[in-house]
Amino acid sequence: ENKNGEAFKVANFSVVSKDDEGNKVYHNCSAYGEKSDIPKDFKQGDFVKLFGQIRTSIDDNGKEHSNIRILSSKLLKAKEQMRGRDEKKESVLGAIKKYQAEDKEKPKEKKEASKETER
C-alpha cells in the first residue's frame, strides 16, 4: 500500500548483461504501478533495453547493493528470433585463418621475375 492506503503493484526481477571482459553482470530491477507489467512480456534470453534510475545502498556489513527503478523498456530481439541463426558465428579472425590455411594448401604457380612485369 502507498501513503494513501491504496494498493499498488511492484515487480522485482533480474537482468543479466556482460561487461567489457565478457563476464556476466546481474542487475536487480524494480517496476512500480502500471510499469510492473513491463517484465511480463520478457522471456529468458530476450534482448531488452531498459531505462531507469539506479539506486545504490550499503548494508550493515558494508556491501554495496544497487537496484534499477525501471521507467520504460524496449524489446530489441526475442529469443525466438535468435533461434533460426547459427549458434556460433565465425569471427572475422577465424575466417582469415581459415582462408590462409586453405591458401597454403593450394599449389602455387611460379611467376617469372622480370623488370617488364614489375612495371
Please provide a written account of the structure.
This protein is of the alpha+beta class and 119 residues long. It has a single domain, classed as OB fold (Dihydrolipoamide Acetyltransferase, E2P). The protein is 19% helix and 37% strand. It has helices at 79-83, 92-105, 115-118; strands spanning 10-18, 24-32, 47-58, 64-77. The chain has a 4-stranded mixed sheet. The protein is elongated and about 90 Å long. It starts with 9 loop residues before the first strand and ends with a helix.
Radius of gyration from the alpha-carbon trace, in angstroms: 27 Å
The largest sheet has its strands arranged as: 1-2-4-3
Determine the CATH topology.
OB fold (Dihydrolipoamide Acetyltransferase, E2P)
Number of domains: 1
The proportion of residues in beta strands is 35-45%
- Overall form: elongated
Number of helices: 3
Give the low-confidence spans: none
Quaternary organization: single chain
Topology as a string of helices (H) and strands (E): EEEEHHH
Number of strands: 4
| Average pLDDT for all residues | 78
Through-space gap between termini? 86 Å
* Approximate helicity band: 10-25%
Name the CATH class: Mainly Beta
What structural category arises from helix and sheet content? Answer: alpha+beta
